[in-house]
Description:
By secondary structure, the chain is α+β, with helices and mostly antiparallel strands. The protein contains 15 helices and 17 strands. Strands 1, 2, 6, 7, 8, 11, 12, 13, 14 and 15 form a ten-stranded mixed β-sheet that branches. A three-stranded antiparallel β-sheet has the order 5-4-16, with no helix packed on it. Strands 3-17 form a two-stranded antiparallel sheet. A hairpin with a 4-residue loop joins strand 14 and strand 15. Helix 7 crosses helix 8 and helix 12 packs across helix 14. The radius of gyration is 30 Å and the shape is elongated.
Amino acid sequence: xxxxxxxxxxxxxxLRTQAKIFSGSSIxxxxxxxxxxxxxxxxxxxxxxxxxxxxxxxxxxxxxxVGAQIAPRSIFARKNYFYPDLPKGxxxxxxxxxxxxxxxLAIKVGxxxxxxxxxxxxxxxxxxxxAGKSLHEDFHGRTGIDLNRAGTPLLExxxxxxxxxxxxxxxxxxxxxxxxxxxxxxDGNMQEGSFRCDANVSVRRPGEPLGTRREIKNLNxxxxxxxxxxxxxxxxxxxIEEGRAIRQATVLFDPETGETRSMRxxxxxxxxxxxxxxxxxxxxxxxxxxxxIQSELxxxxxxxxxxxxxxxxxxxxxxxxxxxxxxxxxxxxxxxxVAGKENAKPAANWVMGELAARLNKEDKEVPAAPVSAIQxxxxxxxxxxxxxxxxxxxxxxxxxxxxxxADADAVIEARGWKQITDTGAIDALVDEVLAANQKSVDEYxxxxxxxxxxxxxxxxxxxxxxANPQQVTELLKKKLxx
Length: 482
């Protein structure tokens, strides 16, 4: 019998604030252990938390971006559990009334023009503080505690169990990862733990109630997420088919073995004995505050994608690729500002093709591209006005990438790459090519189309790619009677 897979994700996004959520300590990454932990963070007697307004703004931005309801009044609660890196003995979080409720994300599952649309519903997004970190290495068999992370502001974003494969889960995680960076609330650095996911996975026979879930904790790469979910799904199916019951548990993924392993039995909400934190007043969010934040949000990816399709005539695939990151979209629009909207398709091809390939090859981000948007626009304009061919344009791009000149015109002038468009000169050139390649002429007239391409190639080679390809093609066809 077939099996159905049911997946929900809980994502912890570290918020881009200057200080922790309830204290003034820095959250900068990489400090010496316990160098960024003050009296509030280490829970000295008598200290009181003070809510960071920046963190609330970040939560509201996320809620608006996903079409959620922003609670006019929300409560902070104490989540009680005991662990060495939690100095208070509880974590300040939100339980019954989170700041963000509902909403969802539209995702694309698959690649290219065959990608399928899916909508993943969100249950909630709530503010909370991070715990510290246990250090197990270089302590001679003991464990050290670093409280630099204690109190770091997190937004936990929880989905409904709407995903039914690891592919869908990764597509959702990638979409959310791009969105939180787009609206500026999280840097998305998965290696530093700024964006990490927990996957709740269960399986069931079609038509049966939801199965018992196991939670895979702290997945900090999309590749590991896919591997972990795939292994867990198959493990659960094997267990059930062999007559063993699935027990609710928290599990870890081991990248070395590609397997999940149980860490502890999974707690339910009542195990944490949630109750409202008496040190924090209810959080009140007014409509005016929401409206102000709404006005400060950038154009969202989905809206920009739609605009690229309707106003610029780009395909859904091109528009989706260009809006995959805010930096890529901004670069593309900066190119259009100079090259003109009439060159939208060539600009899209250059950004998604030559530029993206070089960035990927050299492991660079868009802002670090050696060829600026203005420089690329200059190349596109010179192709459009027939100053250079597409082949020469790639050489110009290479020269600009290597810092050989300030703009496309300077490269073209210095290298003598201006395209030959004089009809008389090209006519004489074509005559020479036909006279020197009688075999190709005969083969073309005998019906071999490839021979014509060879003649075009010979003409372009004779001018080192500077002849206008369209003129060469037209003259060759005319002289050959094609």
